[in-house]
Amino acid sequence: MHQIRSYVEGRWHLADGGWATLTDPCSEEAIAQCSSRGISFEAALQYAREVGRPALRAMTLGERAGLLAAMSAALLAHRDELIALSLRNTGATRKDAKFDIDGGIYSLSHYAQLGEAMGSRRFMNDGDGEALGRSARFWGQHVLLPREGVAVHINAFNFPVWGFAEKAACALLVGMPVISKPATSSAWVTERAVECIVESAALPVGAFSLICGSTGNLLDLLGPQDVLAFTGSASTAERLRSKANLLAASTRVNIEADSLNAAVLGPGVEQGCESWAVFLRDIVLEMTQKSGQKCTAVRRILVPVERMDEVQHALGERLAEIAVGNPVSSAVGMGPLSSAAQLDEALSGVARLAESCSIVHGTGRRIDGLENPVGKGYFLGPTLLRAADGRRAGDVHEHEVFGPVATLLPYSGSAAEAAELVGLGMGSLVTSLYSNDREFIEQFVLAGGASCGRLYIASDKVAGQLPGSGVAMPQVLHGGPGRAGGGEELGGTRGMALYQQRVALTGDRALIERIVGVR
Ligand code: NAP
Fold it and tell me: What is the 184 CA–ligand 1 centroid distance (Å)?
């Protein structure tokens, strides 16, 4: 059986026991083992600090951009192999695996382009300088310097490549070494992706380390200049962000957590118009892509009350076309959930929602998969629920079911009510609006925009270009307030801010302008 290794202190580490078992989500057979036992986390951290950091900091932004381009190229060169491994390790379909792997490749190359444009600079300026005294001699200028520590990244199971790549892109470009931990259940894919990068010699030693398995006492060792960026469940996030040493040292912590993303069908989006077609396409995509195991998946669908039957019928028809089964079959449109634990949680989550809503599509129970042995596999078909009252919908505004599950919620058609219902989710990563009514959209932005990190506004004018509301693009912010964790990633250079210290330089103008490179 494959034994997943870690990469620390510039070499591969095979654990000396303490193995967790990974299973094939279709056959339920054990396929790999994962453990980090035997790693000295003190030594791993010290190596990143003392070997990786100076190597990165000796480089210009343009040179670090070259590292990202090489990482991206290394993943691209092994794309097919990574896709095949993803099918086996995570149960993803080929399309789902590409979504993850191509997302990682693209994020790295996007940041490579941003960095390349910064050329020979070693840090970034923040805005323009300004006079602070009676004359223009006493001058102030904000700069963004790389933090002096190590960036520790902890990722969720659902994006084994994109997850580590998008975080690493920002930290490495700024000049911080990275220690990255994938979720155990999908660590095989991440291990292989990192192996491809290491084999290509894309990075200086110590710049990137990988811990597969427990992080041991690593987080206890972090201090004021380090960064912890976490993606995963709200419950784990709460435990990690409240660690005493992180609070005492004001260690920067970024959290990307649960989200009850809403899609809002605006009034007047009738059958036959492009926004209607995009609405149906997006909902089906967001419910079924990666079997609904996406932080940006749509969980709540707000529909004008008089159109609930029509939407339920149209979605039911489309969801019925999705074949659920073993992703090795080309007929299959949706694979299993990634592990027995994820299936159990999703099933109990559906039962929780069904206490106050009706299941109108699907069974809410495990099913057998197409071209897969009977009784095996962690399969749950697309499951659509319906609430009678948008406000009194039980746990729909409280509980994220991390699977192909969403709930239809009626509302009056007013933007204010839509914003109120979206806000009951206590903060989301993305809200999608489907409307050609400018007033409705403007009212929603003002009333409900601040409850989410991204607003995806779908209208007839852009229908042909929309990628789906769940696509996190490197140009655009990923993160959201409240339940979504309060974090910010990506968004072009905004994503680098987590790893930078904003410093106000004040003094003689000529000196400061020389430091910041204006003259
Ligand atoms: P999880 O159980 O919270 O695990 C997330 C990561 O934390 C894993 O790598 C896990 O490692 C690690 N971890 C758990 N306990 C830890 C501890 N005490 N110290 C250090 N690391 C620890 O979440 P998940 O099941 O992987 O992912 C599903 C959740 O992630 C969903 O709720 C989803 O909404 C959220 N998510 C959010 C985003 C976003 O961008 N907002 C993206 C993807 C997923 P092990 O696997 O080894 O336990």
Answer: 10
> Can you give the pLDDT at residue 491?
96
CA distance 393 to 483: 18
pTM over 0.85: yes
Which are the contacts of 189, defined by CB distance < 8 A and separation ≥ 6? 82, 85, 86, 89, 90, 160, 161, 182
Residues with active-site annotation: 256, 295
Taking the CA of residue 259 as reference, the ligand 1 atom at the shortest distance is: 34
Residue ranges of the chain with pLDDT lower than 70?
519
CA distances from 354 to 260, 278, 308, 387 (A): 16, 28, 18, 9
Residue nearest to atom 40 of ligand 1 (CA): 256
The structure tokens listed for 489 are 């990633």
| Separation of alpha carbons 424 and 409, rounded Å | 12
Mutational test site, ligand 1, from 231, 246, 289, 339, max ligand atoms within 8 Å of CB: 231
Q: Which long-range contacts (CB under 8 A, 24 or more apart) does 38-43 make?
A: 38/13, 39/6, 39/8, 39/13, 39/15, 39/211, 39/216, 41/215, 41/216, 41/217, 41/218, 41/221, 42/217, 42/221, 43/8, 43/9
Q: Percent of the chain beyond pLDDT 90? A: 98
The number of CA neighbours under 13 Å toward the Cβ of 402 is 21
Give residue 446 CA to ligand 1 midpoint distance, Å.
Answer: 32
Q: Alpha-carbon distance 419 to 229, whole Å?
A: 29
What DSSP character marks residue 370?
A: B
User: Which pLDDT score, from 0 to 100, does residue 519 have?
Assistant: 60
* 3-class SS letters over 36-96: CCCCCHHHHHHHHHHHHHHHHHCCCHHHHHHHHHHHHHHHHHCHHHHHHHHHHHHCCCHHH
In this prediction, residue 518 carries a pLDDT of: 73
- For the four alpha carbons of 400, 406, 410 and 413, in that order, the dihedral sign comes to positive
Secondary element (H or E) of residue 240: helix 234-241
- Looking at residue 357, its amino acid is C
Contact residues for 344 (Cβ-Cβ < 8 A; gap 6+): none
Q: Are 175 and 149 in contact (CB under 8 A)?
A: no
Per-residue pLDDT reduced to its tens digit, 290-311 = 999 999 999 999 999 999 999 9
Q: Is 222 in the pocket of ligand 1 (CB under 6 A)?
A: no
